[in-house]
Amino acid sequence: MNELALLDAIQTIHTPWLDSLVAAYTWTGNIGQLWIVLGIVLACIPRTRRLGAAVLIAFVIGTILTSGIIKPLLMRPRPCDINPGVALIVERPFGSSFPSGHTTSAFSAAFALLFMRHPRAPKPLIIGVFVLAVLMAFTRLYCYVHYPTDILAGMAVGLLAGFLAAKILALYNTKYPEKE
Prior knowledge:
- By secondary structure, this protein is mostly helical.
- The protein has helices at 3-10, 16-27, 33-44, 49-74, 79-82, 101-116, 123-142, 148-175.
- The longest helix has 28 residues, at 148-175.
């Protein structure tokens, strides 16, 4: 199945209440505010300070890779540019399509938490952030602003960013171990 056909199939589930819900949730991923807030909240709690740092570092790495390097290099048109007949429920996002920045940010946060293997990282938090990341990725398809491969690439960049953030903090933790 080609990507536009899959996106068109998703368009068949639109309802006014779901459109409102999806538009509101996808808005929380604009400029990464949901993931920035998550990182800041975790960083403000002494027990989870390094988890918050990991989320914020991963977010920065993912943003640089996605919006600073990959998107400008590839300049892939968005599905809404290819098929303008589909009514958008959100404003057309700035920039190109590949990879999804919303998805990158979401999965950067999720993978940073996973890779930290922090004894104070509650499993429900990690699972919850992964659920939120999957939902964020789906909203981008539902909104007709990204192709499925944009989402997969965003997940891959998020994985890399989360991994790198955990490695950076592991080096930091070696030099400055946490005090119990």
